[in-house]
Amino acid sequence: MKRAALSCLLIVSAAISCTATCFPVPARSDTGGTPLSPAAIDHMVRLEWQKKGIVPAPADDDAAYLRRVYLDIAGVIPPAAAVSDFISDHSRDKRAQAVAALLDSPTYADSWTNYWDHVLMGGSVRAQTVDRSAFRSWLHSQFDHNIPWDKVVYNLISASGVNSAGGTLAMAMGAAPSPSAAAAQGGQPEINGATNWLLKYQGKPEDLSGNASRIFLGVQIQCAQCHDHKTEKWKQADFRSFTANFINTRAKPVDAKANTKGMVRVLDIEDVARPFQPRGKKAGSIADYASAEPCALDGTSFSDAGNRRRSLAAWMTAPENPWFAEAIVNRIWAHFLGRGFVEPIDDFRPSNPANMPELLHSLADDFRASGFNIKHLIALITSTQVYQLSASAQAKPGVGNIYWAKYRLKPLSPDQMLDSLVQATGIKPALEQNVGSNLDQIRYQLQRQFQFLFDVDEEFEQKDFEGTIPQALMMLNGGLVNTSVRPIPGTALSELESIAGGDDACVEALYLRTLSRKPTMAEAAMWKHYVNEARPVAATAPLAQVPQEITRAKKNGKKGAPNSGYNPLAKAAGKLRSVAATPRQQAYEDMMWALLNSSEFMFNH
Amino acid sequence: MDASHMYNNLNTKLHPDNTTCAGPTPGSSIVMPGRRSVIKSGMGMLLGAMLAELSAPEMARAAYTAKKAKPKSCIVLWMNGGPSHLDTWDPKPGAVTGGPFKAIKTRAADIQICEHLPQVADVADKIAIVRSMTSKEGNHQRAQYLMHTGYTPNPTVVHPSLGSWVTEELADPHFDLPGFVSISGPSYGAGFLGVQYGPLVVQTPGQMPQNVAYAADVDAGRFDRRQQALAMLEGNFAKQTGDPKVSGRVSVYGKAVKMMRSPRLKAFDISEEPESVKTAYGDTNFGRGCLMARRLVEAGVRFVEVVLDGWDTHQDNFNRVQKQMNTFDPAMASLIKDLTDRKLLDDTLIIWMGEFGRTPKINGNEGRDHYPGAWSAVMAGAGVRGGTIYGSTNEDGTKPADKPTPVCDLFATYAALLGMDNAKTFNTPIGRPVSITEKGTPIAQLIG
Question: Tell me: domain B3-13+38-43+70-208+269-446, CATH 3.30.230.10, correct?
Answer without folding.
Answer: no
